[in-house]
Every structure is written in C-alpha cells, then in structure tokens.
Amino acid sequence: MNKPVIVALDFADDFECINFLNQFPKDQKLFLKIGLEMFCQFGYPFVRNLRERGYNIFLDLKLHDIPNTVKRTCEMIAKWDVQMLTVHASGGAEMIAAAKKGLAGSDTKLLAVTQLTSLGQTELRDELQVPLKSQDYVTHLAKLAFDNKADGVISSALEVPMIKQATSEDFLCVTPGIRPKASQVEDQKRVATPAKAKTLGSDAIVVGRPITLAENGYQAYMNICKEWNK
C-alpha cells in the first residue's frame, strides 16, 4: 500500500464537501475518510458518488456489535468497493474475525480501532477503569486484532513502534491525531506532526480540520504531503 495522506471529511452537507473537493485538480487521486457523521447524513449513495469520481475511501464506521451482526454488515460493505473499514478492537476476537470473514472476496482492508486519540491515560484509568498503561492497552488490542486477521489498526503515531514490534512490520498502522506544527491540538490528546508520524513508522496519516478548515485546502494538503513524504 502506498503511504497516503487521508483527508477526513467533516462537513455539514454534501454540497459543502463537493465544493471543498473541487479545489483539487481532477487528476489528484485523493484518499478520503467518511466518518459516522457524514455517513449517517448521506449514506451509501454519497460513498458511491465519491468512488465514481475516482477517490479512494476510508469508511470509518467503527463497527462494534455482536459478531453475527458485524459479519452481515461487512458482507454488505464488501460490495461497495471501499479501501478501508474500521471496527473497534475492544469488540473482541470473535467479532474481529467475523468482520474479516464478512469482507472475504473484497479488497477492503479491515482496520481495528485500538484507543481513541481523544482518550488519554487519565480517562483510561478513571472512566474506563482499565488498569493497563495506555501504551500497553493499545499494544494488547493491536495484537488481538493481528491474531484475528485484521489488516491493521488505527492508533496514535506514538504507539506505532510498539505495535509493529508486537505484530509485524506489514501490519498497517493508520494514524489520526495528526497536526502540523502551526495547528491547534483541539480535542485530540495523543497527537503527532506528519514528520514525526513518518519517523515512527505510520503507514498512513489522517488529517481533517487543518486541511478542511484552511483558507486554501489544496495548499494545506500539499504542505502536509510535503512534510509527510520528505
């Protein structure tokens, strides 16, 4: 897999989204993340429209349910020709394995979410009552995903070296919580710059507001790509 900069689409409506995408040259092969908010508003027709325009799609639905429900959902999504799909690793071994079975026959990569980048050690200990250190918990969930045939994980860049060591160099680590040096951290707790993520071994980075809210989204994207690829 090429190491893409994935643009997270967080728009109030599809018209605003298309206006944003029209800033980019038609031959720019963008990789786009569609999360719960936009998917719940516009559904599969929106996904299909973006695929027909030639964009690669990371469908970030973070599925988390009983194994049979997740498997049947993945069987439907397998027909959509998306490049990535997420489940929650905390759904357990059987659920992860069921999701992979549901995607059988498709090229969709199954990625398991380890720990949300909005959660730090304090939230893990006090709210979720997980006794492990954050990095140990992430590594544990990544190993669970790896053992049950997921293609990779979503994690902070800070945990990538340990995840690779616990799994495989070929196990994909897709990294949100990316902020250029000049950007505000906002609601993310475990963040890294594009250059730092590259150094730590991330296979792809996900960037939203520093691109989508920029005055010139195309230039912001190109600046991040330059930092990521150098």
TrEMBL record:
Pathway: Pyrimidine metabolism; UMP biosynthesis via de novo pathway; UMP from orotate: step 2/2. Keywords: Decarboxylase, Lyase, Pyrimidine biosynthesis. CDD domains: OMP_decarboxylase_like (cd04725). The keyword Lyase applies. GO terms for cellular component: cytosol. The lineage of its organism: Bacteria, Bacillati, Bacillota, Bacilli, Lactobacillales. This is Orotidine 5'-phosphate decarboxylase. It is an enzyme of class 4 (lyase). It catalyses: orotidine 5'-phosphate + H(+) = UMP + CO2. It comes from Companilactobacillus farciminis.
